[in-house]
Amino acid sequence: MRIRKLLLQVCVPLGLALASAGYAQAGPHVQEPEVAIRLAKVALAKYGLSGGDFTDEYAEIVQTQAGITITTDVIVWFRVKQCPTGRLVVHMTPEYFVEEIYSLRNCKLNGIPAY
Fold first, then answer.
1. pTM of the predicted model over 0.85
2. Using one digit for the tens of pLDDT, what is the confidence trace for 14-27?
3. Does residue 33 contact residue 57 with C-beta atoms inside 8 Å?
């Protein structure tokens, strides 16, 4: 009985900790770029951009390749009518939290940093 009780006291919390850690690190999967694009558009709405402004979109899911596949970054690229030569970039965490929004190549939009 003592061994069983000891195993329950150690294994159950350890299993719960490992399960929650694995879930937190898993992040989005390659088949979920649509979710990243939708959430990036929500973030860009506060800058006055809406559905008709976007002409092209691509979500890049950045993952490690060393043994275990873990998503490290999500980068969403947009072309918008207001910037025919540049791109808008929304850099996100694996859990889809926006870390940074910026524009590239002569794309200057009000309130968005341009690089």
1. no
2. 444 433 343 334 44
3. no
